[in-house]
Amino acid sequence: MARALYIHWPFCLRKCPYCDFNSHVRAEVDHGLWQESLLADMAREAELAGGEPLQSIFFGGGTPSLMPPSLVARLLEEAERRWGFAPGIEITLEANPSSVEAGNFAALASAGVNRVSLGLQALDDASLRFLGRLHDVAEGLAALEVAQAAFARVSFDLIYARPGQSAASWQAELTRALGFGTGHLSLYQLTIEEGTRFATLAREGSLVLPGEDDAADLFALTRQITHAHGLPAYEVSNHARPGEESRHNLTYWRYQDYAGIGPGAHGRRGGPDGQNYATVRHKKPENWLACIARAGDGIAECRPLGAHEQAAEALMMGLRLAEGVDVATLAARLGLAEDALVDGERLALYERLGLAWRRNGRIGATADGMPVLNTLIAELVAPALVERPG
Description:
nine-stranded mixed sheet; 16 helices; Arc Repressor Mutant, subunit A; TIM Barrel; globular; three-stranded antiparallel sheet; 390 residues; 42% helix
């Protein structure tokens, strides 16, 4: 049963560094066809993952804030009819902070969206140009102001550990960001992904990021500042006032079921046969539409998940959280022994080193462990889960 629904809208108005396909850039979209297709995809998913009211809905993808509000309203109406909505459901929409998109915010709020996540990314124009963003600071802050007037809850993201960024400049930028009064911030360190423009620049030597020690200092500074302002880190990169955490993302991190519809959407859900499945929709819009017409849904893959693979995924997601993972509950849920999930000797070692904690059946990373989280996860997840993922 899915407690969350992800709706992927793939289209952008113009090419940006984050698009996977040139075909995603469309001046015009047949909204009638897309509404019909998304509703069909939703209907099939509800047949298989229904039975529990939705706690959250998330519109993501290319530029979902440019979806017609009437389409958003129709999708929400159908989701409520098929699943039902839990009281106080969180309905989030991703948006770029452009004036064009901000002009749609009031209508999207009227359609039922009650939370927006804005991709501000930086508060200086030189950094925005470096990051390949299409907005400047003035336009971004104007969009933030409109969002705060339209939606009950607003989050925005920033990227730090940028080339040449000092601790003092990041402290000033983050303090300014906190002054805008939103209840949630996503704060990510800049990383180099293969196949991107940044990877090419790094190989050429024209892009140099802060070293590991400097990046760790910036990470610690980030946590110190956000905690002092009442937005402590509840996940490795996410900070919120108590009660303002992203309920939708918590579904992922707590390894609860969620449905995904639209091109490229992923899902994790139990089936009527008692088996758990990973679902993936066709990524390219044309292939997704063709599959809808042929089969009634956009599924490219529906793969059964074994207990060991689920355990590994749950640990890798849950250890990102400040609350950690309830190992006993997870083991009981999957029918595995607790010592089959976590390497007890390694956990004891990292407890002694001050990088991990264990209490009341839960385990997690300490503040000192969070900067090396990927390494810590690789060490703590029991070898049997990696060696036998099924």
